[in-house]
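assembly run, all chains below
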Amino acid sequence: AMEGGPSARIREGDCAVLKRDEVFKAVSVLRRRKIIFEKQWFYLDNAIGHIYGTTFEVTSGGNLQPKQEVEETTTETKEAGTDNRNIVDDGKSQKLTHDDIKALKDKGIKGQEIVQQLIENSTTFRDKTEFAQDKYIKKKKKKYEAVITIVKPSTRILSTMYYAREPGKINHLRYDTLAQMLTLGNIHAGNKMIVMETCAGLVLGAVMERMGGYGSIIQMYPGGGPVRAATSCFGFPRPFFDNLHEFPLSKVQSLLSGTFTTETLPADPEENALVEEESNGLTEEKQTPLQETEEEPTAEAAMEINPTEEQDAMDMNAEDVEFKENKEKENKENVREKQIKQWERRKKLLEAAALLREKNADGLIVASKFHPTPLLLSLLEFVAPSRPFVVYCQYKEPLLECYTKLRERGGVINLKLSETWLRNYQVLPDRSHPKLTMSGGGGYLLSGITVVLDKGKSDSSNSEALKMEEPSSKRCRLQDLPC
Amino acid sequence: MSFVEYGDTIKDGDTAIVFLGHESMFPVKVQHGTVTQTKYGVIRHSTDLIGKKYGSKVTCSKGGWVFILHPTPELWTMNLPHRTQILYSTDISIITMMLELKPGSVVCESGTGSGSLSHALIRTVAPTGHLYTVEFHQQRAEKAREEFREHGVEHLVTVTNQDVCKNGFGVSNIADAVFLDIPSPWEAIGHAKSALKAEGGRICSFSPCIEQVQRTCLAMEEYGFTEINTLEILLRVYNVRTISLQIPDLGKAAEDNSSTGFDSSSPSHQGSPCANLQQGTVQFKSGVPLREVVGHTGYLTFATKS
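ok done. output:
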């Protein structure tokens, strides 16, 4: 953990987040790299070395400059009106034209000064009420005083950013819903977590942040590999990734039924083909990885790499190998690398499988585009009893079905289907009111706690079903219904 | 067991949660030789609890059964003895995320109250962080200390019995975050600022009344806090129910032997494959809102120290 020390400084290579009012954008801090943000373009070079949280101005030339602390114009009793009954919006109250303003900008006049000019050249400004003047100034400042703050990524920042900019990538998981998941799931240092998400790695990153590098995570993934685009934005130190494992969903059934093997990896079909084609000249290289792993329990996996082909290679004519040596040297390197990578992948896969097989995970988090029911029913098998699980779904209906299937399965209690409703407020003297409603857009959660599964009889026996649900005298008995 | 680390089996001295059914549970201090009464009968700690796996089903003397759960701050929040109004997990969740809390964080809190938020904060900052919590009521401060001890987290928290508005949190320039849930938070903003680290610290103030929020926002601005933002969060819970609705009898057109025209088994009907045509009803699964919900707890105001 790297807390409690001096404030973090912006370094080259960092993933930083640009902030202007409520707008965020994640960028890589690289020299001489043109960044476009909020209709401005600039280089981040001058920001390097400054503390995160510093606010900058964009100078002409596209360079950043730390913003000086400015004295707020004192609220002397300026001339102001009482209401807008006589203010006509004819679009002609501002005497400065587009060109005039552009000229000012080109001259390098600071935004602050431009705003002042706009006020002085507005015929209606002094007729506006104080509040309206305030609002006018704020609006002009927002447009002409281009200040950008560079903030350190965190779950708070990134989840807000993704929800505003690319909600489709995170299945419209709103940040307060994510916050609920982390707490309901009791995510904390030392846990052994199973995470299944298709939210660009944002949920994984949030879980990793709350675990602080302690404990372990097994990320389940569909297809060929997990997507961790957002995870890299968090800027976690390397050791955080030591206990991050991954396991393909396509192997879950085999793992549960005990027929799991590493023979068919969900890897590049290209990769496998390459190994087979060029294994002939590689007897020597193959020996090394095998030897290295003899102590490891995964030595089995290494041995599995085509023992028959090894035999063939040895039989091959030594002269032939030497003749082709130069030509194939480069190929060998590439293939050797690929072989080592594949061997490493197999090793990791076995490690992840072993961790899952222990069936003692401390929790399960699911947030994906897939129907939640099959995921829950299978992945819960890997979770210890008396541990929380949380499933996110953009839609409510699949969770209704999930709830029902979980009741049938048994081994879960305290099931709760919920959503959160979030509202932001504008708080100003005499002008406080809710800002905007975001209700209905945050997604839904189904949470619960595992208990020891009674394999003999289903836990949802009559008595438990009645215990678990509120009585309803007019309700048909569930048992009589076909669904 | 501890509130910051999972254990597998129930041990003497643990705080465990006895789960009896829907929304019915209570905490119990596990002790050799003790018995606990439940509506399903007696639970004998020595034979029924100690040594059993958390999550086990325990049959009580009258034949009914319960589940014994490992404690978590969330379960504790739902079951702790109230000495004051408490914060619930919905607010706690957003507070935790917006204050950017994580292992190693140093947090200051006032008032401690019944320790609901405190337990959640301790869980999040463990094992390397710390919670400095200030409570001006002497007995409440003492009760909090006692509970933290019983729950195995006393090394992660310091309880100070004083008035935060007068004397602050007892630390300076080290906190990553400060949380205020007191009647006059604007009086503590200055102290909050000095407790926070030099740059980038986060503050949160919780107040039920908008007038309190207004005064607090003003104070935050005066003390140079930025990114001041007020929000509220509400939890909507749904009960999963199978609902049956009757099909009304709309009669028949003359010389028309077909059904009433509402074909409940048509694919367009709300995704339900199971219509019970015999009794003229249609079934579907629904997430039904609760009749009474918690409306407003308080406004949450966040800001950053620059």
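Chain B touches chain A through 81 residues (CB under 8 Å).

DSSP finds eight helices and 15 strands in chain B.

not gonna interpret more than that til we talk
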